Automatic annotation (TrEMBL):
Entry GO terms, CC: cytosol
Protein name per its UniProtKB record: Pseudouridine synthase
Domain RNA-binding S4 stretches: 2-60
InterPro entries listed in its UniProt record: PsdUridine_s_RsuA/RluB/E/F_cat (IPR042092), PsdUridine_synth_cat_dom_sf (IPR020103), PsdUridine_synth_RsuA/RluA (IPR006145), PsdUridine_synth_RsuA/RluB/E/F (IPR000748), PsdUridine_synth_RsuA/RluB_CS (IPR018496), RsuA_PseudoU_synthase (IPR050343), S4_RNA-bd (IPR002942), S4_RNA-bd_sf (IPR036986)
GO MF annotation terms: RNA binding; rRNA pseudouridine synthase activity
Length: 240
């Protein structure tokens, strides 16, 4: 017997967190009865429906997408906006994004139906690094960069130390390009950290996720991960 949200995640319905929301909203039925209580356990012989559709165990799939700006990091959007799943073609499995990138942020995003790996990749405990390139207003001082490297608290929220580097600055000193590497994934984290040191973000892109880079992809393009890449992600999250 396993918890219902875990079974939904492993079946590729949604992430563990999103599966919990599906349950609490009454969209999941077990053996014909709606289940809204988290922690409900189910077995292999139980019939599970999500929005009236039976779940099924699908072959795991792992996709890397170069997310463009102006696309939402969800499987569905109630406002009718284009989603990252809309950009993944010729995939029969139900996939969902691992974590998220803001609507106006571009860069590397993973999609999968492997709930266990997705949960570990997004958990700060496993410290999988993500590198962002930001164009900011102003040029950060040495003290500002030191604050980022030591960790910073913004509006009561503490962010772990980040690797930071000024890559370039405009001749008029009004803008700069900064590289920031973090292992957490808190909401709007990079934007909040840079704004806190006096350098609000004008444009943001995720360049790297762990060892994965955008090499060979243009904005809006995707590719399946190679078996050795999946193996390395599992090693990074102690699933190997």
């Amino acid at each position: 017997m396993e918890r219902l949200q875990k079974v939904l995640a492993h079946a590729g319905v949604a992430s563990r967190r999103q599966s919990e929301k599906l349950i609490m909203s009454g969209r999941v039925k077990v053996n014909g009865a709606a289940v809204t209580e988290l922690g409900t356990k189910v077995g292999v012989h139980d019939q599970i429906l999500v929005d009236g559709v039976p779940i099924s165990s699908e072959a795991p799939i792992y996709i890397m997408l170069y997310k463009p700006r102006g696309v939402v990091s969800t499987a569905n959007d109630d406002k009718g906006r284009k989603t990252v799943v809309d950009l993944v073609e010729n995939v029969s499995q139900r996939v969902y994004p691992v974590g998220r990138l803001d609507y106006d942020t571009s860069g590397l995003l993973l999609l999968t139906n492997d709930g266990e790996l997705a949960n570990r990749l997004t958990h700060p405990r496993y410290e999988v690094e993500k590198t962002y390139i930001a164009r900011v207003t102003g040029v950060p001082t040495n003290d500002a960069m030191k604050q980022l490297r030591q960790g910073i608290t913004v509006d009561g929220e503490t962010y772990a130390p980040a690797k930071s580097k000024v890559l370039s600055a405009a001749d008029d000193r009004k803008t700069a390009i900064i590289s920031l590497t973090i292992h957490e994934g808190k909401n709007h984290q990079v934007k909040k950290m840079l704004a806190a040191v006096g350098c609000p973000v004008e444009k943001l892109k995720r360049e790297q996720y762990g060892f994965l880079t955008l090499k060979g992809l243009n904005a809006g393009e995707a590719r399946q991960l190679k078996p050795e890449e999946v193996k390395e992600l599992r090693r990074l999250t102690h699933l190997a």
